[in-house]
TrEMBL record:
It comes from Zygosaccharomyces rouxii (strain ATCC 2623 / CBS 732 / NBRC 1130 / NCYC 568 / NRRL Y-229). It comes from the Eukaryota. GO terms for molecular function: oxidoreductase activity, acting on the CH-OH group of donors, NAD or NADP as acceptor. Residues 3-254 form the NAD-dependent epimerase/dehydratase domain. InterPro entries: Epimerase_deHydtase (IPR001509), NAD(P)-bd_dom_sf (IPR036291), NAD(P)_dehydrat-like (IPR050425). This is ZYRO0E10362p.
Length: 333
């Protein structure tokens, strides 16, 4: 039984590879270049159960065809994780919407044409459930049944909105495919994913998009403005990885698994920094805890937590492990 993980170099995907290898699965990862595959293979200790195939750009709807032509019959499970996860563009269609949508359609069409796949898990997002405006509104409650109201035209106001909408359109395409073909689909819909990088050596001055929130706070100084001052929800990357395995190990067909372990805001992260890392001096405002702690919308994911049935990592632990890894790299631990 082989599991295909698209976007294997990603922050979350590397933890998924780790879980899969620990459970002895045969794993095929897609990477954008030979060098990236070689590096990752070495980092995992060159296991024979792990191999890589090159898929250069998922914007091309046929990008997955050579891989499925060659190895489609080996693949039982597809974890589709590759998607742009950044806000560094003003060409929203080219850099966010099209790769997200075409990537999902492309892998699904290749499955239909060449594969014998039993299960598809698509890494979607809380961003497919609500938009940024609503997710900051503390009077609202969302569940796994909700959808971001974005449209293709209206979402292109800024990169954050376009990213959120890209996750909605990609996820919708996956559900349409599942309905049409009968292929078993589960989606994973995490809120902000924090946590350590899989490999210490990959800690650089700039981390992946979601961890940059914590990285920015580590390197902030007293008096700095909290910009943007997030009021949202978090989940640890190691729990997100675990959920990807549960999604195909249990019968979760048709579920949108909402992953959140509760609220965070910048001040709550700073309070952990101030308490656990006295070498940092990040207090914002006159006292720790004086920042804006108003809650964002609630993501009521009790149903998903019941399905997953494992305990989630606390914000304290998640932030501690993330910060400790950065400070270790900087020689400040
Ligand atoms: P990363 O940016 O670390 O990983 C993204 C992966 O997608 C990388 O492997 C990247 O390749 C690949 N990729 C991006 N664009 C293309 C493209 N055009 N062609 C081929 N490959 C591409 O992000 P995360 O690990 O944080 O996110 C993984 C998934 O989880 C995404 O689908 C994201 O939307 C979703 N998600 C993330 C959340 C978070 O807070 N991090 C929250 C909710 C959902 P390369 O490394 O070569 O650039």
């Amino acid at each position: 039984m082989a599991v295909l993980v698209t976007g294997a170099t990603g922050f979350i995907a590397q933890w998924v590879l780790d879980c899969l290898l620990k459970e002895n699965y045969q794993v095929i990862g897609t990477v954008r270049s030979q060098e990236k595959g070689d590096k990752l293979h070495k980092q995992f200790g060159s296991p024979s159960k792990l191999s890589f195939e090159i898929v250069k750009d998922i914007s091309d709807t046929e990008a997955f065809e050579p891989l499925f032509k060659k190895r489609g019959k080996e693949i039982d499970i597809v974890l589709h994780m590759a998607s742009p996860c950044h806000f560094n563009t003003s060409d929203y269609e080219k850099d966010l919407l099209i790769p997200a949508l075409n990537g999902t359609k492309g892998v699904l069409n290749a499955i239909k044409k060449y594969g014998d796949v039993k299960k598809v898990v698509v890494t979607s997002s809380y961003a497919a459930i609500t938009d940024m405006v609503n997710s900051a509104d503390g009077s609202l409650v969302f569940t796994e049944k909700d959808w971001n109201p974005a449209t293709w035209e209206r979402c292109q106001t800024d990169a954050v909105n376009a990213y959120c909408a890209s996750k909605k359109f990609a996820e919708q395409a996956a559900w349409e495919f599942s309905k049409e073909t009968g292929v078993s689909l589960t989606t994973i819909n995490p809120v902000f994913v924090f946590g350590p990088q899989k490999f210490d050596e990959d800690v650089t001055s700039q981390l992946n998009t979601s961890n940059e929130i914590i990285n920015g706070l580590i390197h902030s100084k007293p008096g700095d403005k909290l910009e943007p001052d997030y009021h949202s929800a978090y989940v640890d990357v190691r729990d997100v990885a675990r959920a990807h395995l549960v999604a195909f190990q249990k019968d979760t067909t048709g579920e949108r698994l909402g992953l959140s372990n509760g609220a965070f805001n910048c001040q709550s992260i700073l309070d952990i920094l101030n308490e656990k890392f006295p070498q940092l001096d990040n207090t914002k405002g006159p006292e720790p805890g004086m920042g804006d702690t108003k809650p964002g919308a609630v993501f009521d994911n009790r149903h998903s937590k019941e399905v997953l049935a494992f305990p989630f990592i606390s914000l304290e632990q998640c932030v501690y492990d993330t910060v400790a890894q950065v400070l270790k790299k900087e020689g400040r631990l």
